Amino acid sequence: MNQSKQRFKPDSKLVPIGAMWKKKNKKTGQTYLAGQINEDVNFTAGSGLLILPNAYKNEGENRPDYNVMMPEPAERKDTPGEDVEDDL
Questions:
Q1: Distance CA 41, CA 43 (A)
Q2: Which residues pair with 24 in a beta bridge?
Q3: Per DSSP, what are the bridge partners of residue 16?
Q4: N or C: which terminus of the chain carries fewer CB neighbours within 10 A?
Q5: Are 4 and 85 in contact (CB under 8 A)?
């Protein structure tokens, strides 16, 4: 199986696929992220992800602290039988 690394291009359109909340362990004080990925997301092993701070959250709101994003797959116009490398 040929797997290529997915790289982010500056002009990639990002699609929201989940959310993360900042949590703190009461016993150890360690900070961590907990969240979810939407169930309708279709990605494979090696897919690139970005976790970005939620710029729209105000203090005290229950909105996620971070948004999980991935680049929207580019539409490809490959001809049948051609081997093309995924350059995302």
A1: 6
A2: 31
A3: 69
A4: N
A5: yes
What is the arrangement of strands in the sheet containing 50-53, beginning at the earlier edge strand?
31-37, 14-24, 66-71, 50-53
For the chain, the domains span 14-37+46-71
User: Distance between CA atoms of 7 and 11, rounded to whole angstroms?
Assistant: 12
CA dihedral 37, 39, 44, 45 (to 10 degrees): 40
The span from the CA of 68 to the CA of 64, in Å, is 10
Rg over CA atoms, the chain: 17
pLDDT, tens digit, 9 for 90 and up, residues 19-69: 999 999 999 999 999 999 998 887 778 888 899 999 999 988 999 999 999
